[in-house]
């Protein structure tokens, strides 16, 4: 055997090296193809949206005129606004409580590491279907089912938010390290004990973060549920806008902005306390 033959790469190694080269070339083309597809999507969206820059430039005067009608804010509606804001907060709190309870159940059922494929896949599809239903449509269905007031808003928030929060809970469960769970299993721990002592310490930060984030979203979404009669400050917003009482709308806007800022500060404080 010659020295050249002894240094030759075996055929299987050659095939592996060629396959690796092809994979590297494919990965090098992927960012370019992705950028090209994104650019084509932007061009398609722009061309079909009837965007005229001259109309946008001439809209400044009309916006200024609309804002001028809102000044000065009519503070006579402040007691009504504060009461409706409190109702909005109650809708968000109880709706979040409902979606947390539902998400604990569906999050466990949707976790790939805990449940068999025949169970977690249908649950994941169900959650995706819930996320695809617009919140306003859910609120309208709830209003038709239980009538006007805060109850349909609470039910709509709880149902709609479960599609997102349960998905986050399932991802937090799937992302844990399996070694503590396996150690507890070898020690004869029950399913609940493995969740309490093996899984919960790892996923607690993600669960708290996602729950607070969902509460912020629920609060913002509950502001508009009154448009369809589901209670809260949104009801007065749509009433005053339809009757052209823009100064009262300004008062509602100021209260809503203050409300959201205070909730954001409270959530930030809670996150810092839990670190």
Question: What topology emerges from the helices and strands here?
Answer:
Elements: H1 3-6, H2 11-47, H3 53-57, H4 60-69, H5 78-110, H6 117-132, H7 135-146, H8 150-174, H9 178-186, H10 191-222, H11 233-242, H12 246-274
Helix pairs in contact: 5-8, 5-10, 5-12, 6-8, 7-8, 8-10, 9-10, 10-12, 11-12
Structural class: mainly alpha
End-to-end distance: 67 Å
In round numbers, the mean pLDDT is: 79
Strand content: under 5%
Q: Please give the CATH class of the largest domain.
A: Mainly Alpha
How many strand segments? 0
CATH topology of the largest domain: MetI-like fold
Write structural notes for this entry.
- This protein is mainly α.
- The chain has two domains: 1-39; 78-274, MetI-like (MetI-like fold).
- It has twelve helices and no strands.
- It has helices at residues 3-6, 11-47, 53-57, 60-69, 78-110, 117-132, 135-146, 150-174, 178-186, 191-222, 233-242, 246-274.
- The longest helix has 37 residues, at 11-47.
- The chain is globular.
């Amino acid at each position: 055997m010659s020295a050249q033959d002894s240094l030759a790469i075996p055929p299987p190694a050659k095939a592996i090296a060629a396959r690796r080269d092809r994979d590297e070339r494919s990965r090098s083309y992927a960012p370019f193809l992705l950028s090209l597809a994104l650019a084509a999507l932007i061009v398609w969206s722009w061309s079909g949206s009837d965007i005229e820059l001259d109309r946008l430039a001439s809209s400044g005067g009309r916006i200024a005129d609309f804002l001028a009608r809102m000044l000065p804010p009519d503070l006579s509606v402040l007691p009504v606004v504060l009461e409706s804001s409190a109702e909005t907060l109650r809708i968000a709190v109880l709706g979040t409580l409902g979606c947390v309870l539902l998400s604990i159940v569906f999050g466990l059922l949707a976790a790939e590491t805990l449940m068999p494929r025949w169970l977690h896949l249908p649950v994941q599809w169900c959650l995706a279907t819930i996320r695809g239903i617009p919140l306003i449509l859910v609120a309208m269905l709830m209003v038709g089912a239980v009538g006007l007031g805060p109850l349909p808003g609470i039910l709509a928030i709880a149902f709609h938010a479960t599609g997102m929060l349960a998905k986050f809970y399932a991802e937090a469960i799937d992302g844990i390290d399996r070694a503590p769970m396996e150690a507890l299993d070898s020690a004869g721990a029950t399913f609940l004990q493995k969740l309490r002592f093996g899984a919960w310490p790892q996923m607690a930060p993600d669960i708290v973060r996602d729950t607070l984030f969902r509460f912020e979203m629920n609060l913002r979404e509950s502001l508009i549920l009154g448009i369809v009669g589901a209670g809260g400050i949104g009801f007065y917003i749509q009433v005053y806008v339809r009757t052209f009482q823009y100064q009262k709308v300004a008062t509602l806007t100021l209260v809503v902005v203050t409300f959201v800022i205070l909730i954001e500060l409270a959530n930030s404080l809670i996150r810092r306390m839990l670190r």
